Amino acid sequence: xxxxxxxxxxxxxxxxxxxxxxxxxxxxxxxxxxxxxxxxxxxxxxxxxxxxxxxxxxxxxxxxxxxxxxxxxxxxxxxxxxxxxxxxxxxxxxxxxxxxxxxxxxxxxxxxxxxxxxxxxxxxxxxxxxxxxxxxxxxxxxxxxxxxxxxxxxxxxxxxxxxxxxxxxxxxxxxxxxxxxxxxxxxxxxxxxxxxxxxxxxxxxxxxxxxxxxxxxxxxxxxxxxxxxxxxxxxxxxxxxxxxxxxxxxxxxxxxxxxxxxxxxxxxxxxxxxxxxxxxxxxxxxxxxxxxxxxxxxxxxxxxxxxxxxxxxxxxxxxxxxxxxxxxxxxxxxxxxxxxxxxxxx
Length: 346
Description:
Layout: H1 2-37, H2 40-73, H3 78-83, H4 88-112, H5 119-150, H6 160-167, H7 170-205, H8 214-243, H9 246-255, H10 257-281, H11 287-336, H12 340-345
Helix pairs in contact: 1-2, 1-5, 1-7, 1-11, 2-4, 4-5, 5-7, 7-8, 7-11, 8-10, 9-10, 9-11, 10-11
């Protein structure tokens, strides 16, 4: 039960964090679209997306704290052992970065509500907010996760040199790129969902003659934002899989039937999701198609997280079992060093 709760909370946490990271950049894309096309709907969507970024940020931080508590309750504590190798100064600096993001996005929204002026400052605030999260937190947590999954971490706190060596490790870099692409895809799906909700309200309020709905164009824009990084994930996901530790990769690809089944379901769901996103990106903005693509992305995230947590649990259990067997082996060796003939001679 704890594993199921952890999977669901981690899925929502990742979705929220993805929106927080790439959302400000999508706001800039919507503002550029509004300027180029003199499109009020795109400008309104930029402000709406900015507010959702703040909501997602608060949700992501809150769930992150809850997840740390759940991980602490689980056996093994390998994650916290890896977390202990990160310098305390870097963790405190991360807390300051969260406050910095909050200030940047609050400033962006305040300036976005004003008419005219301040556009350069507003754009800079959005860029600072996005890059602040994308350049610091995915690498940090990828390093912690990598150390935990390898099952062996340094006894001392990582110094600057060791930290940057891990930062350039292929396993860490592949995970960071994977998160960046996922954040763009999830943000595009959120824009699609918001556009579909706006279209539903427009259908209820406008007469039938007013059939042109700008929300359809925004749904197409969001789908194009989502489908490109989703397709790129095929290559990056393979990179992540290849760079995983051998035990983790083998567990996901066959050693553990449950993990393998979940991984296969996630891949099949991802193919279906790409088909749906491509259809919306090409102009099929029927509400059922748009909402189906959004829910398919959520399903892919949940099932992929389930496959990952199951894999990590299986690998940790196997590692702990091997460690306990190794601890008993010296005692057996000591017993064999005292044969009966030698005892009788004494």
